[in-house]
Design goal:
It contains 11 helices and 12 strands. The chain is an alpha/beta fold and 322 residues long. Strands 1, 2, 3, 4, 5, 8, 9, 10, 11 and 12 form a 10-stranded mixed sheet that branches. A two-stranded antiparallel ribbon has the order 6-7.
Length: 322
């Protein structure tokens, strides 16, 4: 009791605060999401996500050279196709931009962890994450295409596969396909609890993946549900997921905590485009301290239980933490 007990004693100096800090945020906790397309010399800024770009493979390698020097050791690749069709065929084309980028990055930076997003929404003409029949997204026919995409990425040299489609059974289908193709050592980081969120708006511009009809609420999760997240995570783990992800992060910190406490496995959280862009807009207006808010947000995600954070702040955060 006061005056004997004084918690402020352990806040008195920066050195003492650092000594007793309970949550540690390090560059090794971060994955840097990137967008790659075909061509040469391409570095085109995404208007709704300042500081983020569409890269061609050559400029992507340059970007990673700079990011590596700042402490970034893991990236997540999204592909922007040259053409789209009903079944997203460029997603599983061995000569597509993501596959080319994986080979180039592993040649230049063998120790870089290259994770690839596996989904069809960027690649389909209708913008949905699966095969359309009679106006509906068909679950089971989509699984084969997702598995083909995962095998194509692994064959190019990807270190980890990250399926984000939210089709039932996709982790098991991908695991079986990877093992059958000789890639049993490749881990799967599943978007296990991916919510149908309004925070994805800027990403849909970046990936040109807005659905041409309807929405994704028949396969992404209802934001009101948290018990359902535990069901989804449990199913993905049973099917062979090695890491499970909660997406988005900030509005779902409670879900991150529940997943970590219930399963005790490596948990990732995606600090998504809308969360990033809101911060950047407020910073631009002078309403928030840029450096402090970035680190506070990422620390809160770690404190909730995330071992891994996918964030568009990754490069800046790594510089601040180094």
């Amino acid at each position: 009791m006061f005056p004997v007990t004084r918690p402020r004693r352990l806040r008195r100096t920066a050195a003492i605060r650092d000594l007793v800090r309970q949550t540690r945020l390090e560059p090794s906790n971060l994955i840097y999401p990137l967008f790659v397309r075909s061509g040469e010399g391409v570095k085109q800024e995404i208007s709704s996500m300042p500081g983020n770009y569409h890269f061609s493979v050559d400029t992507l390698v340059e970007e990673i050279g700079q990011a590596w020097g700042e402490g970034i050791r893991s990236v997540l690749l999204f592909g922007i196709p040259d053409k789209k069709d009903e079944v997203g065929s460029e997603a599983y084309d061995d000569a597509a931009a993501v596959q080319q980028a994986v080979r180039a990055l592993k040649d230049s930076y063998p120790d870089l962890i290259v994770v690839t997003d596996v989904c069809l929404c960027e690649y389909t003409s209708h913008g949905h994450c699966g095969v359309i029949r009679d106006g509906d997204v068909e679950n089971d026919p989509t699984l084969e295409l997702l598995a083909r995409t995962a095998v194509s990425h692994a064959a190019a040299g990807a270190d980890m596969i990250a399926p984000s489609d939210m089709m039932d059974g996709r982790v098991g289908s991908i695991r079986e396909a990877l093992d059958g193709a000789g890639h049993s050592a490749i881990p799967i980081m599943s978007y296990a609890a991916k919510y149908a969120s309004a925070f994805y708006g800027p990403f849909r511009e970046a990936a040109d993946s807005t659905p041409q009809f309807g929405d994704r609420r028949s396969y992404q999760m209802d934001p009101a549900n948290s018990d359902e997240a535990l069901i989804e995570v449990g199913l993905d783990l049973d099917e062979g997921a090695d890491i499970v992800m909660v997406k988005p992060a900030l509005a779902y910190l409670d879900v991150i905590r529940r997943v970590k406490e219930n399963f005790g496995v490596p948990v990732a959280a995606y600090n998504v485009s809308g969360e990033f862009s809101m911060v950047m807009a407020a910073v631009e207006k002078g309403w928030l301290d840029r450096e402090r808010i970035i680190l506070e947000i990422l620390t809160s995600i770690r404190r909730a239980g995330a071992d891994i954070i996918l964030t568009y702040h990754a490069r800046e955060a790594a510089r601040l933490l180094s």
